[in-house]
Amino acid sequence: MESKLVERKPGGRPGNGMLHRYMAEFIGTFGIVFAPVALSATGRMEGGDGGLMAAAWVSGLAVLAMIYALGHISAAHFNPAVTLGFAVARRFPWRYVLPYWLAEILGGVTAAAVSALLFGGGHGAHLSHGPAARSLGVEAILTFFLMFVIISVATDRRVNEAIPGLAIGLTVVFGVMIGGPVTGGSMNPARTFGPALFSGADAIGHLWIYVFGPMAGAALAALLYEAVRGGEAHARSAPNDIYQALEQIEKTAQGT
């Protein structure tokens, strides 16, 4: 089902419906950041499980749940690197990249702040282990796989709409499993930025790896998928056909 950008303000005048998409990005990013950060805290308690497998599955299941809850509203980017990838591939308007980034970053920071309030700071932060070049490469490659799956299931009309949450969630699971010992398997600047603010100088000093690696990987994956998609007949935007909806808004506004 396509979500519409046209909403009605009091008095019946049409308005830009991007606000509810920003709200969805904030809530979804909050969910996918809070889940693994809270697990990191509760995993140290009696009966908790703070191991790599638990972190991978909680991260993947949180992504899966938020996609099914909010994907039909905002396309469930929940990740500045993913938003960049969609924009580079011309599946998302550049003029909305910064607002999406802001919503995603605020969602991650708020999730980390709530977790710090409940459990104390220092939980769920990502730290690079070993050479910085290796960590940068791991984040870029893992995010490449994630973005390649996302742009396929989110923007290709041949993909069944029931598939995206499961496909993307499972990709996050294997990404965290592989990247966990090296970088924590972030694949998402918003996932790393929030907890880093509550975890001290070491975590903040590693932030550049979790920005440049995922951004590069996502952009490359998006461009490569566009090269192998097989034509515009199979393509749509993320959110679905957002360009057509925005064009309709502009036409409606001009007619008022």
Describe the structure.
- With 256 residues, this protein is mainly α.
- It has a single domain (18-254), classed as Glycerol uptake facilitator protein (Up-down Bundle), CATH 1.20.1080.
- 66% of the residues lie in helices and 2% in strands.
- The chain is built from 10 helices and 2 strands.
- It has a two-stranded antiparallel sheet with strand order 1-2.
- Strand 1 (6-8) and strand 2 form a beta hairpin.
- Helix 3 (80-88) packs across helix 5 (132-155) and helix 5 (132-155) packs antiparallel against helix 6.
- The longest helix is centred in the N-terminal third of the chain and has 25 residues, at 18-42.
- The protein is globular and about 60 Å long.
Outline of this structure?
With 256 residues, the chain is mainly alpha-helical.
Following the backbone from N to C, one meets helices and strands in this order, namely EEHHHHHHHHHH
**Which strand order do you get reading across the main beta sheet?**
1-2
The helix content is 55-70%
Number of helices: 10
**Any idea of the CATH class?**
Mainly Alpha
In CATH, the homologous superfamily goes by the name: Glycerol uptake facilitator protein
Mean pLDDT: 89
Which ranges are low-confidence, i.e. pLDDT below 50, for 5 or more consecutive residues?
Answer: 1-15
What would the principal axes of the Cα set say about the shape? Answer: globular
Largest sheet: 2 strands, antiparallel
